[in-house]
């Protein structure tokens, strides 16, 4: 829980910036009624809210991986299957590009557009 809330302090201010908010809003058609229903029950009633929480959970999982947390697979499964954050597997594959190319992406916000553009795919 601490790791999750810690991630909010980095992710949320970044994606609240106009350029990122606009890019996120351009893909809001992905917030289909079924996903909306699942997310609204958890308090994420907008595409932007889902995206914010999706990116926070992605960061949370990657930090847990680096920390060697034993129940990482259970955390991943819970986020995807129980909470409906179905885009995490693809985002985890993409985030490896960031992690493996820190010279090209010295800060997370330089890679963030690629994570947001992934929604288009």
Draw up the topology in text.
Elements: H1 2-15, H2 18-25, H3 33-40, H4 47-67, H5 72-82, H6 88-100, H7 108-117
Number of domains: 1
Label the structural class: mainly alpha
Question: What gap, in angstroms, lies between the N and C termini?
Answer: 30 Å
Spans of at least 5 consecutive residues with low confidence: none
For the biggest sheet, the summary is: none
Secondary-structure element sequence? HHHHHHH
Tally the helices: 7
Number of strands: 0
- What general outline do the C-alpha atoms trace? globular
**Helical proportion, percent range:** over 70%
Percent strand equals: under 5%
- Rg for CA atoms: 14 Å
Mean pLDDT: 94
Keywords for this entry:
121 residues; mainly alpha; globular
Description of the molecule:
It is a single chain. By secondary structure, this protein is mostly helical. Helices cover about 70% and strands about 0% of the residues. Helix 4 packs antiparallel against helix 5 and helix 6 runs antiparallel to helix 7 (about 110-115).
